Amino acid sequence: MKIISWNVNGIRAVHKKGFFLPFIQKYQPDILCLQETKAEQNQSEVDLPDYEEYWNSATKKGYSGTAIFTKTKSLSIILNFPENILKKYKLSDKYGDPNTEGRVVAAEFKNFFVVSVYTPNAKDDLSRIPLRYKNWDPAFLEYMKSLEKRGKPVIFCGDLNVAHTPEDLARPKENEGMKGYTKEEREGVDNIIKAGFADTFRIFTKGNGHYSWWSHFANARERNVGWRIDYIFVSERLKNKVKKAKILPQVLGSDHCPVLLEI
């Protein structure tokens, strides 16, 4: 089974540029998880007859949003966080309520769950760090563990808006304490791994130079001055079933590139 995750930074834009359908045709994912779709399903001109499409769009038009496209129909779909987790963690701040921004969609299959997630970023002035550190990150991890408790392992993927270690960005010293590379954000990934989820890319590939997002400035992508902020995690019990995990920097159309898992 091939699972691909991609922050498309606007599915209509990447489709109009002519990149989306050739990507699907070349890689033929069994399950495709998208982030930053920036559209509702009825606004998308993409027609994929081989796939079931499950969308979670933001209340705000043209913003955020996630989706799961799958060749196998799901048993159930869950949008956003469950009520019990929302009651426990206050997700609203001065910027709004991330639970209305279409940031999480989960699909249940016979033997596992797949989740597409688009984590809120901390903002340039770090004003959203409290939301990330105290609310979003622990809420999301608790949600993933609650899915495991339903008797099936979990594969979750997406744009987590954080580089986990110094090897996950080209310039760690210069970016220490900046958005996407604070101790608080990195601790969120530490906690995911401590909870038993495996960062699939790092099962196979060590070292730096492997990135999934590049700034639009100063030819960062051409120079590979980037960040690895897009991940695919699997439950511990699936780790030995992972055959391949790769980043696909050759796929253009967004400021992010896709990440791939074969399991």
UniProtKB/TrEMBL annotation:
<dbReference type="GO" id="GO:0006284">
    <property type="term" value="P:base-excision repair"/>
</dbReference>
<keyword id="KW-0378">Hydrolase</keyword>
<dbReference type="GO" id="GO:0046872">
    <property type="term" value="F:metal ion binding"/>
</dbReference>
<dbReference type="GO" id="GO:0003677">
    <property type="term" value="F:DNA binding"/>
</dbReference>
<feature type="active site" description="Proton donor/acceptor">
    <location>
        <position position="159"/>
    </location>
</feature>
<keyword id="KW-0479">Metal-binding</keyword>
<dbReference type="InterPro" id="IPR004808">
    <property type="entry name" value="AP_endonuc_1"/>
</dbReference>
<feature type="binding site">
    <location>
        <position position="36"/>
    </location>
    <ligand>
        <name>Mg(2+)</name>
    </ligand>
</feature>
<keyword id="KW-0460">Magnesium</keyword>
<dbReference type="GO" id="GO:0008081">
    <property type="term" value="F:phosphoric diester hydrolase activity"/>
</dbReference>
<dbReference type="GO" id="GO:0008311">
    <property type="term" value="F:double-stranded DNA 3'-5' DNA exonuclease activity"/>
</dbReference>
<dbReference type="Pfam" id="PF03372">
    <property type="entry name" value="Exo_endo_phos"/>
</dbReference>
<feature type="binding site">
    <location>
        <position position="159"/>
    </location>
    <ligand>
        <name>Mg(2+)</name>
    </ligand>
</feature>
<feature type="domain" description="Endonuclease/exonuclease/phosphatase">
    <location>
        <begin position="4"/>
        <end position="256"/>
    </location>
</feature>
<keyword id="KW-0540">Nuclease</keyword>
<feature type="binding site">
    <location>
        <position position="255"/>
    </location>
    <ligand>
        <name>Mg(2+)</name>
    </ligand>
</feature>
<keyword id="KW-0269">Exonuclease</keyword>
<feature type="binding site">
    <location>
        <position position="256"/>
    </location>
    <ligand>
        <name>Mg(2+)</name>
    </ligand>
</feature>
<dbReference type="InterPro" id="IPR005135">
    <property type="entry name" value="Endo/exonuclease/phosphatase"/>
</dbReference>
<keyword id="KW-0464">Manganese</keyword>
<feature type="active site">
    <location>
        <position position="118"/>
    </location>
</feature>
<feature type="binding site">
    <location>
        <position position="161"/>
    </location>
    <ligand>
        <name>Mg(2+)</name>
    </ligand>
</feature>
<feature type="site" description="Interaction with DNA substrate">
    <location>
        <position position="256"/>
    </location>
</feature>
<dbReference type="GO" id="GO:0003906">
    <property type="term" value="F:DNA-(apurinic or apyrimidinic site) endonuclease activity"/>
</dbReference>
<protein>
    <submittedName>
        <fullName>Exonuclease III</fullName>
    </submittedName>
</protein>
<feature type="binding site">
    <location>
        <position position="7"/>
    </location>
    <ligand>
        <name>Mg(2+)</name>
    </ligand>
</feature>
<feature type="site" description="Transition state stabilizer">
    <location>
        <position position="161"/>
    </location>
</feature>
<dbReference type="InterPro" id="IPR020847">
    <property type="entry name" value="AP_endonuclease_F1_BS"/>
</dbReference>
<comment type="similarity">
    <text>Belongs to the DNA repair enzymes AP/ExoA family.</text>
</comment>
<feature type="site" description="Important for catalytic activity">
    <location>
        <position position="230"/>
    </location>
</feature>
<feature type="active site" description="Proton acceptor">
    <location>
        <position position="256"/>
    </location>
</feature>
<dbReference type="InterPro" id="IPR036691">
    <property type="entry name" value="Endo/exonu/phosph_ase_sf"/>
</dbReference>
